[in-house]
Amino acid sequence: IVMPYNDLAKSEELLRRHKSEISCVIMEPVASALGYLPGDIEFLQGIRELTLELGIILIYDEVQSFRIGPGGAQVEWGINPDLTALGKTIGGGFPVGAFGGRMDLMEMFDPSQGGAATVPHAGTFNANPMTLAAGQVVLEQLTPECYDRLNSMGNDLRMRMQIVFDELEVSACVTGVGSLFGIHFTNEKVVDYRSMLRGDQDMRKALFLGLVNEGVLLQIVSAGALSTVTT
């Protein structure tokens, strides 16, 4: 079941109609495929309230939105999911994945209390020492001051890009939050996947290729992120 992003009424209808079939809702609080479009606070809060009411587990994918603050989008906006998936940043450039959440759910993976875990979670690369060491160094560098600087630069970049598009009379909409940004060639406000697709996709590809020729590499969907100095 696919719920429409930022549409609480339709999402509520789907959740209530199929509540007996749904074990969990998995969502990004900042939709990376939509040019890092942040979910409306009312939408995110509404989904949290509905999942609590209906007894459905809420899982946040914060693999990319973790970069907007020390606790990710959930801390920035005060919304607590039941489980959270993380990656990328926490690995210091090495392949990594992690998840955490409610104690009663995480205990199902814990074999340390004697006997086998309810849900086995073995893996060749689990707790890889090199990845964890690199990730620890990165997380130590990402102080609140560092996040503030990155987010301020991101806000400034999105504003400046929108000004340039407006001055050139190019129909474009710049989305994003924190140090993340996305560019859409459209006259309408981008709020979900459908409104994003109605934009000029050929222009996005042309921008991507044009910037590559100038030595600037964005994602092919004309999205990107600012970073700290990398050595």
From TrEMBL:
The keyword rRNA-binding does not apply. Keywords: Pyridoxal phosphate. One of its GO terms (molecular function) is pyridoxal phosphate binding. Pfam families: Aminotran_3. The keyword DNA-binding does not apply. Its cofactor is pyridoxal 5'-phosphate. This is Aspartate aminotransferase family protein.
